TrEMBL record:
Statement: the UniProt record of this protein carries the keyword Membrane: yes
Transmembrane segments: 137-157, 177-197, 358-376, 382-401
Record protein name field: SAM domain-containing protein
Organism lineage string: Eukaryota, Sar, Stramenopiles, Oomycota, Saprolegniomycetes
SUPFAM superfamilies named in the record: SAM/Pointed domain (SSF47769)
Annotated InterPro entries: SAM/pointed_sf
Keywords: Membrane, Transmembrane, Transmembrane helix
Region of interest: Disordered: 82-122
Origin: domain of life: Eukaryota
Annotated Polar residues bias: 82-94
Length: 579
């Protein structure tokens, strides 16, 4: 059971004290007014209460809502597979404490278990741009020219340089400045990009509370900010890309009935036989097969109408029974690798380009540093290497991060067109993003599981119970038939309650049979692709950039610190060549 009312555990297992805690905590104490009347009952006893007993609980409407909520939670917990969208995020404590995942009230045992068992990813990581990649032809030519120059200096002109100001050692010192800058800038920019996404969990010692850093350790920005990023993304998604009500309006209740036809007959037959065997098994055994089939066929004839009505009700109240934000956040937080994969897959080209541009930026800054070294060699030890290291590390990381999303709108300076690298590929990214989100997050399976088990699932089961009871009550012809074969009208009232419970018990599995149709009908891949492709550059930039924008300064700072450290290392080797 979860703090927001999800059905993460079976109410049948709750003690009276746990029931009280849930009733006073669920939806800010929605059922608290009933505590005095029900505080002595366990979850199992509440589930076993009959309709007449529930009628005596006041107020009646609230009691009815509680009954449907508990029955729905119980049916999902016992009928559904163990794995759920919500996951094992929280439990009721052994002493009735209402605990949620990450709550400061979590038990000591839970904290110890979390420390011992580090989360493992079940989703394989996508390819990340490697640090060492196949060099471009420009790099190959540059390396060849560098090799030729080295041969000339150390072999051909070696003797001529002896005794001059430019001996081989001094040439090596000067030439090494841009080379070291190239290697350093290329390396630390790749590291900054990698540290944006990895590691998924904190690695190191003494993590600072509430941060992804420690005395000696780090956690990737994206996985650390995963929940916040997921919530921000889904809010942008719902405000600019998806209208939940419009999307679900694409589901045709009549088509749902057709999809359920293969299991409809067997389900109805099971329910009829279960009720008959429970209330009058001897009579059911001697009934002619034709009479049995007539009863089943009559129920089967009426069922499609009621199923269509129920699906229409669910569509009409979709905002009440489906929490999109909770579903997306919960699913993404189950495995942080999923969120990382989405960013890396969509931005692979930009990440690789920025990694490669590190060498270019490093070479340019290295030439400037070399020029300063030649003009003011006496300042080198104190200024050139440390200060330039700090500037190069800071500015190159800053430029690399800015190049992804800025300028937001294309700008032309002379013959050069400047535009955020990621924004240039809006249509391609839209296709990739739409495919990944619709396949891995907003797929039919996850949506149906979220409807059945999400924080609004109690509303769903209230709706299902109301519609099923209405359907049972409207089955006058069937009722008359049952009464006429000797069951009686009084007993039929009990049968109606049992039928309602049985139908709701089978409802989750029935709903899962329409996953394939739901995926086709919703067509979220196409919707997301088209909507993202139609966004302005500004709105497109706001779709993905804000989720890690506020933490970019950490990577910029890291580049500066590494550059400063490298500068001091270079300084220690400089004195012998300062003049």
């Amino acid at each position: 059971m979860t703090a927001d009312g999800g059905s993460g555990s079976d109410p049948a297992l709750w003690s009276p004290s746990q029931v009280v805690v849930w009733m006073t905590s669920f939806e800010e104490g929605r059922y608290a007014p009933l505590v005095t009347q029900l505080k002595s009952l366990s979850g199992r006893q509440l589930l076993d209460l009959t309709e007449p007993q529930w009628v005596r609980v006041q107020p009646t409407a609230l009691a009815s809502s509680l009954r449907y909520t508990l029955l729905g939670m119980h049916q999902v917990a016992t009928a559904a597979p163990q794995s759920s969208v919500r996951g094992d995020s929280s439990t009721l404590g052994s002493e009735g404490n209402y605990l949620s995942a990450g709550s400061p009230r979590s038990t000591t045992t839970s904290r110890k278990n979390k420390k011992k068992q580090k989360p493992t990813s079940s989703i394989p990581p996508c390819e990340f741009p490697p640090m060492l990649a196949r060099p471009s032809w420009i790099v190959i030519v540059f390396v060849l020219l560098l090799g030729v120059g080295a041969i000339l200096v150390f072999v051909v002109f070696k003797d001529k340089l002896v005794g001059t100001q430019w001996d081989t050692k001094r040439i090596l010192t000067v030439a090494s400045i841009p080379l070291i800058s190239v290697v350093f800038t290329y390396g630390h920019i790749w590291l900054a990009l990698y540290m944006t996404f990895y590691p998924l969990e904190y690695v190191g010692i003494m993590q600072f509370p509430g941060t992804n850093m420690g005395v000696c350790g780090w956690q990737g920005i994206v996985p650390f900010k995963g929940e916040k990023m997921a919530r921000m993304s889904v809010r942008i998604m719902t405000s600019q890309l998806l209208d939940v009500r419009e999307v679900f309006s694409r589901i045709d209740p009549a088509q749902v009935v057709k999809e359920l036809e293969p299991i409809l007959f067997s389900t109805i037959k099971d329910i009829v036989e279960t009720m008959a065997n429970k209330y009058n098994p001897s009579l059911w055994r001697v009934l002619p097969t034709s009479v049995k089939d007539e009863i089943v066929e009559k129920v089967k004839e009426d069922a499609p109408v009621h199923i269509e009505a129920l699906m229409g009700e669910i569509k009409h109240h979709i905002d009440d029974v489906f929490d999109l934000e909770d579903m997306v956040v919960t699913h993404m937080m189950k495995d942080k690798q999923l969120l990382v994969n989405m960013f890396v897959t969509c931005g692979y080209q930009e990440l690789a380009f920025i990694r490669d541009s590190g060498a270019t930026m490093g070479f340019i800054f290295g030439l400037l540093q070399m020029g300063l070294y030649l003009v003011w060699p006496s300042l080198t030890k104190y200024v050139t290497f440390p200060v330039f290291g700090l500037l190069v590390g800071t500015l190159t990381n800053w430029l690399a991060l800015k190049m992804i999303f800025e300028p937001v709108n294309p700008k032309k300076i002379l013959c050069i067109k400047l535009h955020g690298l990621f924004l240039r590929r809006q249509q391609q990214v839209a296709a990739m993003y739409g495919e990944m989100v619709s396949r891995d997050v907003l797929n039919a399976h996850n949506i149906i599981e979220a409807i059945l088990k999400g924080p609004a699932s109690d509303r769903l089961f209230e709706l299902v119970y109301a519609n099923v009871q209405q359907a049972v009550n409207s089955g006058a012809a069937v009722a008359d038939r049952i009464v006429s074969i000797g069951i009686g009208k009084d007993t039929f009232e009990s049968i109606k309650d049992d039928i309602t419970d049985l139908v709701v018990q089978k409802f989750p599995d029935s709903l899962r049979h329409i996953e394939a149709y739901t995926m086709v009908a919703l067509d979220l891949n196409k919707t997301l692709r088209e909507k993202i492709g139609q966004l302005s550059f500004h709105d497109f930039e706001r779709l993905l950039h804000p989720v890690f924008e506020e933490d970019e300064w950490k990577l910029v700072l890291m580049g500066g610190v590494l550059g400063l450290a490298l500068g001091f290392i270079q300084t220690t080797y400089e004195p012998d060549h300062a003049t």
